[in-house]
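Supplementary Text 2. Reproducibility record for the structural model of the 138-residue chain.

All settings were left at their defaults, and a single model was retained for analysis rather than an ensemble. We include the record here because the model underlies the residue-level annotations in Supplementary Table 4.
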Amino acid sequence: GFLTFCASASMAFLPGRRPASTGVTMCHAPRSGPRPHPTPRPEITAAKVLTGEQLGAWADAIPAFDEVRQIPEIIDGIRCNCGCAEDPNFYSLLSCYEGEGMARYCKICQGQGRVAFRLHTAGKTLDEIRAAIDARFG
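Retained model, structure tokens:
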């Protein structure tokens, strides 16, 4: 499923088919297999999570960013499964929602954030959320 998604998503970015709003690919294929989930950093906040105004062309991502902003301590304890974990500048899924992070346009990053929010509001623990995300996106 993941490879099919990446192949399909990258087709949208072939020359002549590139959206005007972005010149980036949708996802990275993990090169070294899945990494462990990170330990949430003490006193992490959502201060760097992009706002709706900052998302501009990616307005359809606003709901995911709004949800992630409410639970940074949970999102910081989840590994990104689209391949962002391969980027040495990314610590956790929360990194995907900050600055130039891929959650602006990557449906995997957005999906993981939204699942985490839904499960957290349903009372699930971080370990239960990680397991559900791994089962669905891993």
